[in-house]
Amino acid sequence: MAFSREVIRELLAGTAAQRLALKEAYAGLPGTRCRRRTHCCSLLPEMSLLEGLAATQLLLEMKPDQRLQVSNRLLRYFFLNPVEILSCPFLEGHDCLVYQERFFGCRAYGLWSREYYQKQAKRSRQAKLLGQQQWQRLGVALPQEVVDFHLNYCPHVELEGDVAVNDEVLVQTSDVIESISGQLVPWHDQFRQEYFSDLSFLLASIALGLQQAIQLKFEIVRDILSTGNHEKVEDIVDKLDDFFEDLKNR
After folding, report:
1. What pLDDT band is residue 97 in, cutting at 50, 70 and 90?
2. Partners of residue 158 on adjacent β-strands
3. Rounded to two decimals, what is the model's pTM?
4. Are 220 and 79 in contact (CB under 8 A)?
5. Environment class of residue 131 by beta-carbon count within 10 Å: exposed (0-12), middle (13-18) or buried (19+)?
6. Strands 31-33 and 91-92
7. Which of 37, 95, 195, 223 is the most core-located residue (most Cβ within 10 A)?
């Protein structure tokens, strides 16, 4: 079985309790404030399927013009992230369009200890190197500056209120979110293993079909690296209808 519009509709309709539990897990974290320079918004973070569904529900509730703009940014992100450093598709100016439902990775950034964050960054770099090797096997050499890119540790996040937080609390919260999302079998595991916890990949596969999305991404990345031409990705994005409207109406 593969993700489809119908599967997403059923998951959205049947996960009200899980999404409420997700909000309760988020509520256990402290409020924060920062300089809002959006350096941490240079990527779409990995997330659980449940978090991706919560963001999808917010997209469905947006006005059509705004929803189309965000869905187009999600598609561009999917196609271009191997060759360019892109902003998170949910970033508009200095504002996060899903801030109240922002993902755990966003909420925890700046709260980890420096030591724990450096360990996470090392694992992330190792994963990106593996991805680079996979592209190399396909005959594509990704830009080294994109492969090497990572978010630096942020010392500027300040806590609000009296809620205590440390690495143990953050790990426990992450585990709780994974456990809640894990109730969505088999889709939770499929999102992790086949879509690499990437919401842009999931939505591109629903809009275009899984195999076509993968094939187009390979062709676009190869063409951009050889010619610098973005016309193909823009043509694909421009021709797609608002597939979120389809999710909403049926």
Report:
1. very high
2. 33
3. 0.94
4. yes
5. middle
6. unpaired
7. 195
